[in-house]
Design brief:
Order of helices and strands: EHHEEHEEH
Radius of gyration: 14 Å
CATH topology: Alpha-Beta Plaits
CATH architecture: 2-Layer Sandwich
Shape: globular
Distance between the termini: 7 Å
Mean pLDDT: 80
Largest sheet: 5 strands, antiparallel
Helix content: 40-55%
Amino acid sequence: MEINLSFGGGTAEEQGGDHTQAASSLYRWLVAEPELRGQARVAAGAGEVGEGRMGDALEVVNVVLANSIALGSLVTAVVAWRGSRARPPQVRLERNGVVVTVQDSSPETVERILAMWNGSAASGGDAE
């Protein structure tokens, strides 16, 4: 199962932010996360190429999970990372075309994301 993580909510102000530093920090956080060791392959990627953007800077973190149990650990790790930041950016998580934006660091956020993705899987939106 593949999850793509990117930053910002799409407004002009958020698009102008430096997401390279956030992506690098989140990448290091996920690689060091004990709950994900052996359960996830984490890779850094370039953001989408768009007007005024080169597309070669690290702006996306791609995660391939070994099983659906690791999904909860990934979402929890992302929420914990946001909670550790002085000015946490919004994090967009995408799985099989279903995009969820993490805007806070509450336990309810983890539950909401898992419920949304599990609902899309139950309705046939996910092969796993």
